[in-house]
Amino acid sequence: MRFSLPGDGFSMIRALVSLLLVVCLSPPLLAAPSTLPLDDAQRLWLADHDRLRVGAVLQAPYVQLDRRLQQLSGANVELMNWLARELGVELIWRTYDSQGELEQALRAGLIDLAPGLSQTPAGLRLWLFSDPYMRVSQLVVGEREGNAAVDLEQLDGTSPLALRHPSGVFDYLRSTYTNLELRPMASERQALQALLAEQVRYAVLDEAQLSRLSREQEFAGLAVVADIGFPQLLRVASRRDWPELAAIVDIALRNLPAKDLDLLHERWLQPKYPRLGESAGFWQNLSLLLGVLLLSAAAIITWLRRQRRGLERQLLDARHALQMREAAEEALRLTQFSIDHSTLGVLWVNWDSHVRYANRAAEQMLGYAPGSLADRPLADFQPELNMDRWLNLWRRVRNSDEGPLGFETRCLRPDGSWLPADVSLSFLRFGSSEYLVVFLSDATERRRAREALEESEARLKGIASNVPGLVFRLERPAAGAPSAFAFIGEGSEGLVGYSASELLDTGRGIRGLVHPEDRDGYWASQLAALDADRDWHWQGRILTRDGQLRWADIKASARIFEDGRAVWDGVVWDITDNKQIELELAASRAQLRELSAHLESVREEEKARIAREVHDELGQVLTVLKLETSMCELAYADLDEGLKERLESMKRLIAQLFQLVRDVATALRPPILDAGIGSAIEWQARRFEARTQIPCLVEVPEHLPAISDAKAVGLFRVLQEALTNVMRHAEAHTVEVRLSEEGGQLCLRISDDGRGFDTSARRGSSFGLVGMGERVLMLGGSLEIDSQPGEGTTLCVRVALDKEKAA
């Protein structure tokens, strides 16, 4: 019974390493690692759940039952027994004949754990899955025909493949390799029997079933000729209502040494290969292994030296830290001295509004003797501050993320006088106590300066009545009263052809000049400014006396007085020329975007043409070259050993060139796009999952409305860029891709659970995000990115469906 894989040298080295470790060191199959890093809550949970029910499907070599001894064995059984020893729990095993019976038992509440399951979108609604603990390859088995591997891309209808159906592998091969002829079989044994009976050319089965069947004499002489690149990732599933158990299982699996999992894989799942003595390069590989061990020893010595140097640096850093601490203590004493002698008043106030500390400046400002402010409530010098208002201030400052809270107020002195003061509140936690730090500054001079400044500004705004444009004043006599134009400058006649008296006497005002289509926006902006007592700004169209249309910009500054009176002084500017330039610029940008869309469409068409030419023309030439090389090998290889090696090297180079041609054609335009955007998304997700080992959940509707080729290509390129960003930057564990139809639009949503990023800080500096945004805009769609640091990223693309195609 002989089985082989491509790359026998590397496999032989790995087998030698495993054999030396097993024979020389003799460790157990699953050695007990260090104590699991569980927190107190997890240990208490395990203490309350010391008996766990494990459900398993009877399938060798994962779980098998010795009916004579009534004892379970297999790879999953050994793994779960190790987990039980580490967690200190008792396992109650329950076996089932099918996956459906296992899921029915879960719904009935009969099991808590299930090892050896693969994560699927349907399974995520029933289970919580752990990280993968074992990778099971899907292998192609056939008659031995030299040492060359089989290329699935080159197989056609004359080389049928037998495999079990229904299965995920059958669906993967059918969707990925359209050139293959697949023969469905009821089991892996029937597939191998069909291969022996020459009904098919090859059989496909996973290495676990191959390991089990390879021990039978019936299947001797078969060889593994390829790996389809669609591994099965085994995980431990647990009940969804016990997230604590899922977290504990993840910790236990991460604590399991990788070498123990490799030994478990080799013992139960790896097919049996020839003994070491039968290998022609045994001694060469053994010498290579000894060289690797010597290099490892040298690396360990170098690492130890670096560790010693690192410890020396840490000692120096500790000494430096001690010196810095002493300097910090000295700086703290200096800070305390500075606070006591500062000209800015400082109060530490407890939650009950009583002063706990006051510096000298605060005592002098408020007119109190030294030390007499301690334990006084704030109401003594701020009578309006009752306990309810104080507690509201406390909560507002304590929960604010915007920094200190500042305002202006008056403080009552013991002699009855009032002190105008600027107050700033900051929250401080010192040890186990919490305080509000109140900073006081005398605002008497600043208030006088502000009043003088306001008067100066009023005179300045009066002078502005002579500036070009329509200058106006809008006044409100009291709070809640209607407002009216009190003044309109004489520049109105030059701007709109009406004199100021006409506008004021007729009641036309500025609103009467506004274009009828813009009056609602004008009125809404004016009311908003009046209601909020803020500055007023509006842009829109106005009509002159002779009916000429012009663009105007209104800006007015508000002054609010203590008695409720308010004044808005402003100017109406003629911005017609600037607005015309702005509209022309917008039109120019629209034309540039249309040109970019056209160029992108032309580039995609050129890519598709080049991909077809590369695939068809170079593929035909390489096929002929491979056939010619094979003919030369058949005719002349036996005449010269050197020529045979040269021909073998040429065949390998041709195979590599075949793969390079496929990769180039696929990168230019994946052929799967011709099958629709849904199939292309699933294909790209599977490639991403196989390349990164990150599970990618895909949800695509069965009946997807047809869209144009440009939109399909655009969505596919956005998906490629998004998955590339996930692979390079996100450090994600799971990716979800969902395509749906929402309100006449096609929505593509890509989500990951990675580290996320700040969209405001990264979006403008990331060419990938900018490129995706421009591509979506060219399709007439929208791009939304939702991400926060540590909370993953969600990218949503929406494009309108083609009405003709939808109809």
Automatic annotation (TrEMBL):
Coiled-coil region list: 578-605
PAC domain mapped to chain residues: 405-455, 536-587
GO MF annotation: an example: phosphorelay sensor kinase activity
Gene Ontology CC terms: membrane
PROSITE patterns named among the record's database cross-references: HIS_KIN (PS50109), PAC (PS50113), PAS (PS50112)
Leader peptide range in chain numbering: none
NCBIfam families: sensory_box
Protein name: Probable two-component sensor
Organism: Metapseudomonas furukawaii (Pseudomonas furukawaii)
